Amino acid sequence: MRVLLTGGAGYIGSHTATELLNAGHDVTVVDNLANGSRVAVRRAGRLANGVVAFHEDDLLDTRGIERTFEAGPFDAVVHFAGLKAVGESVAEPLRYYRINLTSTMNLVETMLAQGVRHLVFSSSATVYGDPERVPIDETCAVHDASNPYGRTKLFLERILEDVVRAHPDMNVARLRYFNPAGAHPSGDIGEDPSGIPNNLLPYVTQVAVGRREILTVNGDDYPTPDGTCIRDYLHVTDLARGHVAALEKLATHPGLVTYNLGTGRGQSVYEVIRAYERATGVEIPFRVGPRRAGDIPTSYTDPSLAEAELGWRAEKTIEDICRYAHEWQTRNPTGYPED
Ligand SMILES: NC(=O)c1ccc[n+]([C@@H]2O[C@H](COP(=O)([O-])OP(=O)(O)OC[C@H]3O[C@@H](n4cnc5c(N)ncnc54)[C@H](O)[C@@H]3O)[C@@H](O)[C@H]2O)c1
What we know:
Layout: E1 2-6, H1 11-22, E2 26-31, H2 38-47, E3 53-56, H3 62-70, E4 76-79, H4 86-91, H5 93-114, E5 118-124, H6 148-166, E6 171-177, E7 179-181, H7 200-208, E8 215-218, E9 230-231, E10 233-235, H8 236-250, E11 256-261, E12 267-268, H9 269-280, E13 286-289, H10 304-310, H11 318-331
Parallel strand pairs: 1-2, 1-4, 2-3, 4-5, 5-6, 6-11, 7-10, 8-13
Antiparallel strand pairs: 9-12
Helix pairs in contact: 1-2, 1-8, 3-5, 5-6, 7-11, 9-11
Bound molecules: nicotinamide-adenine-dinucleotide (NAD).
């Protein structure tokens, strides 16, 4: 397939570009580089002995999207582009609603006009809010999120339902990611957050290479066995392969489908720290800080639907995640170089 990746210069998008090339697809990335890197796009191509075409454009600009589609035709779109920082979304709700909602609506309108009928959408386990049960499967209720970022995912899921209802020839896969982490085993591409990382693994890797002094654990008085939050850490190349599988599913014209992507196992913050130390031999100093607003105690998925319908399963362990994340951060201590 000829696949357009929006936001493909970012973390998950660049890993997906590599896996799509490995699976024999053609890949074009459109990204405004707000949080992405041209270097990531180039390296993603090189890792698969191929080339990823790149367009710098903003999905808020309808003319920009049309320009990108002129480089097609495309068979499918994988839509990663958007803003993702929960705290920032609380401080700047309108920016989050404008960018995440408007860019997606612009994209889907252009797809409809151009006759592109397959869309894979990056959703998130955040749509389950404080889940009614764990492991979380796709029949669990979705809840209003506690922050504007989560709400954009919820709204977009609903908008895509309406689009498929109105255009029954559209095929949309909504992938609800659990906690993407780690880096490509080569150490060439990885997670490169700006500022203080929101996610645990990049925080740990930055402490491991001496870029930050100490890890702050956000609360150890949760109702979990060791008091720290439990999450389902999913290796980013496993997640990338999930997108390849979802695209192949869309080719069978299923209409609207929704899958949780995770490992089915939960790890506490302390378990991740110990796994990191085991995998790398580097000690991670930490201190316990207060709870972070909005964090739920436990979240992990039941991945059996994705396994049954996509033939997909996460393969990498938490030690793999730690080892590859460490390799990436050691080789790129300050992230991607300027292009
Ligand atoms: N990383 C996670 O923990 C996680 C978890 C669940 C869901 N998601 C979702 O997955 C997607 C990808 O996440 P990521 O971690 O790779 O994020 P990322 O920030 O690394 O990548 C997003 C990319 O989108 C680009 N972008 C943003 N606004 C754009 C616009 N208007 N036009 C064009 N490009 C634009 C950015 O420059 C960036 O390269 C996001 O939609 C995110 O909400 C991420």
